[in-house]
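B., you asked whether I could sanity-check this one before it goes into the benchmark set. Here's the sequence:
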Amino acid sequence: MFYEEIRIGQVTELGSATFTRKSILAYAQQFDPRVLDAAREGEPVAASGLHVSAALMRRLVETRDALRASMKARGEVLPELGVSPGFRDMRWPHPVLEGDAVSFSMQTVSKRETSKPKWGLVGNAFRGVNQRGEDVLIFSSLVLAARRTAVM
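And here's what the prediction gave me:
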């Protein structure tokens, strides 16, 4: 979407992911061996926070790609993709346990123009919520969004 089309308060559902024991251990094998220690002791395992974050980012990219494909199919001009100066306040208030299904969403919380006429800056709040209604991932980020007026 172009900067002008983004609305503060807009919520975008990003999809969900189920964290099986197998997927948690596969991620841990590559990226977070601390999780493997709990598994060796026969305890139920909790997903690494970065595993949960990576799942959200995957859903974000898939959602963006689907939106862009839909725009392209309608013959619309596609906005240039902007970069993100980063994220803040990433927290995992509750663990993601094996068998949990987590739904991800993004809410636009701010917009502002920048000194670059081609770009606007958009603030988003991200959430992951398990099937029990518990927040399992929360963070905020900024992203540069292309302005339609710069394209015309």
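One thing to flag: The chain has one domain: 3-151. Otherwise nothing jumped out at me.
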